[in-house]
Amino acid sequence: MIEFKLPSLGADMDEGKLLEWKIHPGDTVKRGDIVAIVDTAKAAVDVESWVDGTVRQLLIDIGDKVPVGTPIALLLAPGETAENAVLPARGAERRRISPAARKRAGELGVDLASLSGSGAEGAITLQDVEAKAVATATPAPDRGAEMRRAIAAAMSRSKREIPHYYLADTIPLRPALAWLERRNAELPVTERLLPAVLLLKAVALATRRYPEMNGHWIDGAFHAAPAAHLGVAISLRQGGLIAPALHDVAAKPLEVLMHELTDLVQRARAGSLRSSEMADPTLTVTNLGEQGSESVFGVIYPPQVALVGFGKVMERPWVEQGQCVAMPSVIASLSGDHRASDGHRGALFLAEIRQLLQQPDAL
Amino acid sequence: MDRAHLRTLVIDSLRKIAPEVEESALRDDRPLRDEVDLDSMDWLNFIIGLHERLQVDIPEADYRQLVSLDAVLDYLATRLRDAPTASPPRDSEP
């Protein structure tokens, strides 16, 4: 028997409220299938299965709010049957419930099976029952306020734990923008690329040479990630922001990235993301775009170890072969975690991004 | 298509991207991307929306003409008059 636990939803999300089950007892589930939709401070998240199996039992109800890591369903592993399945020890135990709690649960219509007890040896107390009744009945709190709280928690943790260093480099973009203009001129509007896609691809490719920028700092050590899942900072129209993952950016052609980026932005703004997108980012990129400021020095999203920021693309005075010319350029910045890397390597990483952007047709 | 009708269509396209847009609060002669706060992805989606509604494919080189809502309406009116049938046109223009 597999205990399906609510997976991580990113560093600033420690609990989720069940909005909808996408599986029912008896269903076959494959890895990657959507199991449930869970509401978080930032978005309604499609929770994906990480295992294959057959649904045996659902352990929480719609409206329940549970911490990340809570078992929410029992699945039979492939080959297991209801008869030969080994029950996880906890599930088989008789629940300890105080008589007062049981009586109150009856009055309030609270399902005891869905409760986790806070009393001695996991006993369900009167308090647990009443807290549950309140949690289920309370209307959804203000999304904006919750989002601020989530951002506050993650950013405070970052500034408390991560010794940031900052670097910046002005990157000339004439070849990249000229290449893009030529390419886009030949294509219908639905297939045009944005400069952001070139920037993302260059960052992802640069991590191949500088893997210490791409990964996580966990329990006092850096763990390099096997692929560049770039967290794309997306500002939401109602305020706040979210940085879900664009998966395996280095391996994908620009057209595919553009398509996936468009889809990701749309779903982020509609408040519908997947759990892997929330949990997977290995390096965040913030791109202020045309309406933004000249440069940005970001706050690293823990447990990641770096953040690359791009300011507004604009023409700047540039000296080229002794002449001052107007050059379209962008200020790229790196916020690095000094525990995981040093400024020298950070500078080389930025130089690599710059180099890659000079050969757009190779991206 | 008269200008008022065209304006409604354009504002519908904007609302798909920026649902908070209030028609009455929009100043037609001001820089559109400041009025509505459109980033480059929003802008591209707006252009795609116009393409879907009006079958006008706006080349990237023409974006700089589209500074305000007024300018967008002028531009679209010209393009629609020059190519009254569906589908675009650029090569067939004199």
How far apart the termini of chain B lie comes to 22 Å
Largest sheet of chain B: none
Number of DSSP strand runs of chain B: 0
Quick one: CATH superfamily of the largest domain in chain A?
A: Chloramphenicol acetyltransferase-like domain
CATH class category label of the largest domain in chain A = Alpha Beta
The CATH level-2 architecture of chain B is identified as Orthogonal Bundle
**Helical coverage of chain B, percent range:** 40-55%
The termini of chain A sit apart by: 46 Å
Protein name (chain B): Carrier domain-containing protein
Domain Carrier (chain B): 21-76
InterPro entries (chain B): ACP-like_sf (IPR036736), PP-bd_ACP (IPR009081)
Enzyme class (chain A): transferase
Structure description:
- The complex is a heterodimer of chains A (363) and B (94).
- Chain A is α+β, with helices and mostly antiparallel strands and 363 residues long.
- Chain A folds into two domains: 2-137, RNA polymerase II/Efflux pump adaptor protein, barrel-sandwich hybrid domain (OB fold (Dihydrolipoamide Acetyltransferase, E2P)); 145-362, Chloramphenicol acetyltransferase-like domain (Chloramphenicol Acetyltransferase, 2-Layer Sandwich).
- Chain A contains nine helices and 20 strands.
- In chain A, the strands form five sheets. In chain A, strands 9, 12, 15, 17, 18, 19 and 20 form a seven-stranded mixed sheet that branches. In chain A, strands 7-2-4-5-16 form a five-stranded mixed sheet. In chain A, strands 1-8-6-3 form a four-stranded antiparallel sheet, with no helix packed on it.
- In chain A, β13 (234-235) and β14 form a beta hairpin.
- In chain A, α2 (99-108) packs parallel to α3 and α6 crosses α9 (343-357).
- Chain A is elongated.
- Chain B is built from four helices and no strands.
- Helix content of chain B is 51%, strand content 0%.
- By secondary structure, chain B is an all-alpha fold.
- In chain B, α1 packs across α3 and α1 (3-17) crosses α4 (69-82).
- The A-B interface holds A 181, 184-185, 188-190, 192, 194-196, 235, 237-238, 261-262, 265, 289-291 and B 18-20, 33-34, 37-41, 44-45, 47-48, 51, 57-61.
